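Reviewers asked in the last cycle whether our approach scales beyond single polypeptides. To address this, we selected a multi-component target totalling 321 residues and predicted its structure end to end. The input consisted of the following lines:
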Amino acid sequence: MTTFEKVRDITVEQLSVDADEVKMESTFIDDLGADSLDIVELIMAFEEEFNVEIPDEVAEKIRTVKDAVELLDK
Amino acid sequence: MQIEGKVAFVTGASRGIGRAIALTLAEAGADVAVNYAGNAAAAEEVAAEIRKMGRRALILQGDVSQTEAAASMLDAVVAEFGRCDILVNNAGITRDGLLMRMKEEDWDAVLNTNLKGVFNCTKAALKYMMKQRAGKIVNIASVVGIMGNAGQANYAAAKAGCIGFTKSVAKEVASRGITVNAVAPGLIATDMTSILPEKVIEEMAAGIPLKRAGQPVDVAKAVLFLVSDDAAYITGQTLNVDGGMVM
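The resulting structure, written as structure tokens, was:
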């Protein structure tokens, strides 16, 4: 599974959106309807799935799916 | 039964109010994880009584003021029972003394167990409750946190903090179907108050409209209500169980 696919699946589960709604340019808040709690849960889910720690200052900068994929690819 | 099949985690449940809460929740149909810090034998007794009622019980030794311990305990509850529906933050200690004579360690100990412990356990439980999109949290505060009490600046500060914490977290997690409330006991007959001189207890009771100290089960029944579906529309509230002491 690619990083994008993993991010997409986590996003689908957390935000209850369809897989095809999740594109690289999609913004979590505006396009995909995430609220602040969703963002916290998403970050935690990414941390768990990819076994990394995402500090708050870094998490704040994640606006789009592409941001998340690029960060987690590192 | 009111909370049939629910899983509850009660901290400080080996004695006093915690014990009464654990037993009352079990009586109402819940499986209960019983946390204790030091009194293993007493905790075993509580677990045995829960099992006699035909419910499952799990004993968890741990100091809620330790972040790791709180997290491991919640992990253990979920590992054993598959979920955690109810958290009752009851563990609490006193280190009474007038402020001018209060040692730093007495301040820290009470704040760590009574307030940080609530933070630790709530954070650990929410990890699971948020995914469940359901949960009930009740924090055992105290009327002392509302009206203050000479000789208990540390205890009052922690309990007042508990109330502010309750409201804030209630607002944060309401969208996930989780309610967070507090119960503020008044003068309740437990080990914690039995050390008070009899004269002090008499004077206090005289100032209570219902003219008596309360029993642990009085507090437990209020907790049961708040964690049941009957209280589904109640969150961020502090319910005094104090015989009318503070209004």
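The interface with chain B takes residues 35, 37, 41, 44 of chain A (CB under 8 Å). We regard this as preliminary and will revisit it once experimental data from Aim 1 are available.
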